[in-house]
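Complex 392.
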Amino acid sequence: MPRLSDRVNTFTDSVIRRMTRISDEHGAINLSQGFPDFDPPKVIMDRLAEVAYEGPHQYSVTYGDPNILDAIGRKQSKAIGRQIQPDKEICVTCGGTESMMATMMAIVNPGDKVMVFSPFYENYGADAILSGAEPIYIPLVPPTYSFDINLIEEGFKQGAKAIVICNPSNPCGKVFTKEELMAIGELCIKYDAFAVTDEVYEHLVYAPNEHVYMSSLPGMWERTITCNSLSKTYSITGWRLGYAIAPEEVIEAIRKVHDFLTVGAPAPLQEAACAGLNLPESYYEDLNKLYTEKRDYFLAGLDKVGIKHNVPAGTYFVMVDISDFLELPQFKGMTDLQFCEWMTINIGVAAVPGSSFFREDINNLIRLHFAREKATLDEAISRLAKMQDLLK
Ligand code: GLN
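Predicted structure with glutamine bound:
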């Protein structure tokens, strides 16, 4: 057979999504790939049923149907405090995943340096490879996941063209403060670089933490590309709807890439999702309350059985420390991936190994998510309690 491209030899499939397959195969409780096990808002499902008969069923405008562009424009203009022009400054994509990939393809030339925090959401690794970017990793140091701003300045001095900021941060749950974002923003301005943000967990920020939009900071609209998604906000991860927001010139470039990558996001789903985007502010307050309760409930459960974890300020992920297990003779020398596979098969709870997020050689952290009904979280905790018994 002729040789495949060198490009695909440099990365593996997504471990997050692989863990879902392993979990399904063994009938485990899937706390690996983050997605909810509950329904989207009823208005969205009702609208989907209507759209089944009303249409559209054919291609939408490549960059997004005018209805969804307007709805996103309205919602996000309010959020960032700036009038976004839906016809020029938004591109609707197939999930946040495509918005990030199309952004990287639109702003990066092969060999350009791009800063990425570590741990990072694993897609960014593949995005960098496929766009030809050379990543410079900036450690977010556990357990607080703080970073050294001097390393970022160093990265810009080495010529980094952009910095990718996942805020709130997958997998570590960090929420960047306004001061941190201002400091990064000032460097972007000083070194004339882009800030690429992934804000798909914007509504899952737990009090007293607050979400600050990079694009809302002084001088940052001009150089920020905000990647976002409807997946988490409306519990519709399977619909694959996302978008990028940026100044017109940048969006023009992203739209070109998007046009040839996917032509467009599913037209009927774009139409039905408008029912979600048009929900009142109280919807987001309720969503936040729901996830705050889930977080507190799940963390209390982990505490009760003595499992060590961080306290996420945002997202629905929690990092669990498995160091004590790796000391036991039966786990000695195991990688975190092997541990996660063992845990899925023998404990019946699937997690994502931390090594799929960290650039550093870190083997003692795994990621769980809590976007699950309480009864499922209860069952997961009681299974994890059995695992904890191994330490007694
Ligand atoms: N963001 C989710 C996670 O990290 C999954 C997203 C995806 O698989 N596209 O688990």
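The mean pLDDT is 97.
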